[in-house]
Amino acid sequence: MRQYVGDNYVGDPRSQLDTLLEAAPSDISDDDSSPYHFLDHLYLHVVHNALPPPKRKRLLARYQVVVGTIVTVVEPLPMESLARLLDLRVENIKSALTFLPSVISVPSSDSDKPQVYHPSFPDFITDSNRCKDPELVIVSSDHHRRLAVQCLLYLIKYLKRDICDIGDQSRLNSEIEDLDEKVVQATSPLYAVTLATSHRLHTLQTAG
C-alpha cells in the first residue's frame, strides 16, 4: 500500500490514497470471507490501473510476457539479461512495468534486477481463485514451458566454440587482457542453461 500511495510516477499521494479508499470494497459477503480479500482487491486495482481499457488489448500480451517472467523465473535477472532472454528491448520491459512500481521495483540501472516487493503479489497473480480477472492471471505452468523454450533458443543463438573470442587457444590466462570481464560476458548464456533446466524440471514435475 505504501508503494502505491507514494508512486513517484503519479506524484500525487493524496490522490492515490483517495483512489484507493474509493476502490476499497464497502462490505464483505459470506463468499468473500477470505483473509486475503482486501489485499486481493488492492492488487487487482493496481494491475487494472496498469492496463487501462483503451490500451488493454495492446498491453496484455506484453504484460503476460514481462510480468509472467518476473514472477515465475527461478532467479531474478538483470534488466539487460531479461531483455535478451525475452528478445525485447530494455525500454519495452520498463514500459510494461511503468504503472506497476507499487508491486515491482524498476531499477534505474540496466544491470540491476527488477524485484517483486512482496511474495504475496506472485501468490495472488498466479492464483485464478484470487485474481478474478482471467486475462490478468499468470498461469505458472504455461510460463515455465515458455521460459524453458526461450532459454534453449537463447543458448542456440549465443553458445559457440571459443566463446570468449580469444582466438589463439595457446595463450596463457595472464596474457589475455580483461579476461575476467570477457568470461563474465561470454558465459552469461550458461546461466540460461540453469534456468532452462530448472523450468523444464518444474514443467515435468507439474505434469506428474
Number of helices: 10
What's the structural domain tally? 2
The helix/strand class is: mainly alpha
Low-pLDDT stretches are 1-12
Q: What's the arrangement of strands in the largest beta sheet?
A: 1-2
Rg estimate, integer Å: 21 Å
Q: What is the strand tally?
A: 2
CA distance, first residue to last residue:
38 Å
- Secondary-structure element series: HHHHHHEEHHHH
**Secondary structure: helix percent:** 40-55%
* Average pLDDT taken over every residue: 79
Mass-distribution shape: elongated
Largest sheet, in brief, is: 2 strands, antiparallel
Strand-residue fraction? Answer: under 5%
How does this structure look, described?
The radius of gyration is 21 Å and the shape is elongated. The N terminus is likely disordered. It is built from ten helices and two strands. Helix 4 packs across helix 8 and helix 8 runs antiparallel to helix 10. The two termini are 38 Å apart. Helices cover 55% and strands 2% of the residues. Strands 1-2 form a two-stranded antiparallel sheet. The protein has 208 residues and is mainly alpha-helical. It has two domains: 137 residues, no CATH class; 63 residues.
